Amino acid sequence: MSDQPQDEDEIYVDAQEVFIDEQPIELYKVLKLGNLVGGGGEAKMVIAEGYVGLNGELEQRKRCKVFDGDLVSFNDEYLLIVCEQPVADPKEQLAQKKNKPAKPAKPASKAKSKDKTAKSKLDNKPVEQPRSAITKRRPISF
Predict the structure, then answer these.
(1) Is 74 inside any structural domain?
(2) What are 72-116's pLDDT values in tens digits?
(3) 88 lies in some domain
(4) Contacts of 88 (CB under 8 A, 6+ apart)
(5) What's the CA gap between 48 and 25, in Å, rounded?
(6) How far is CA 41 from CA 3, 59, 73, 81, in A?
(7) Rounded to whole angstroms, what are the CA distances from 45 to 37, 50, 75, 119?
């Protein structure tokens, strides 16, 4: 017999580890990463039909958020989610986006052209040259 006391609620399963870069991750993506399904469409279908479990409970939400330590079960196979990154906080992501350097300013010539109105554009028409001089083609006569 083993020296470890066994609790009746605990069940030990052989689970394949799925390593992810950031968390949370959607449930259908986990099935794709674990090679349990052929593609995203198939993953969404099996989730919607009720064949996938998350932490011992049936899950039918395709985009259910899965975190580090969660256990996904499908077709008598188990996936354990492993991620070393902390949970991404939406507020922190916004702060990171705000801290990114701004795009460089556009050249002054383009900025000035935006300030002009439509009327001023009509007034500054270039002098029209004869059609044949611009295209070097003869005019068509009907």
Answers:
(1) yes
(2) 999 888 999 898 877 766 666 556 656 666 566 566 555 555 555
(3) no
(4) 22, 23, 24
(5) 17
(6) 46, 16, 18, 21
(7) 10, 9, 14, 58
Which residue segment(s) compose the domain that 20 sits in? 16-82
Whole-structure pTM value: 0.53
Count the domains in the chain: 1
C-alpha 27: how far from chain center:
14
Identify each DSSP E strand in 1-142 by its residue range. Answer: 16-19, 25-26, 52-54, 57-58, 65-66, 71-74, 77-82
Tokens coding 7: 């609790």
Give 47's contacts (C-beta < 8 A, 6+ positions apart): 27, 28, 31, 59, 60, 61, 62
- Could you give the strand order of the β-sheet that contains 77-82, starting from the edge strand earlier in sequence? 16-19, 77-82, 71-74, 52-54, 57-58
pLDDT of residue 101: 62
10-54 pLDDT, tens digit per residue, is: 667 778 888 888 888 899 999 998 889 989 899 999 999 999 999
**Total number of residues shown for the chain:** 142
Output the six-digit token pair for 74: 């499908």
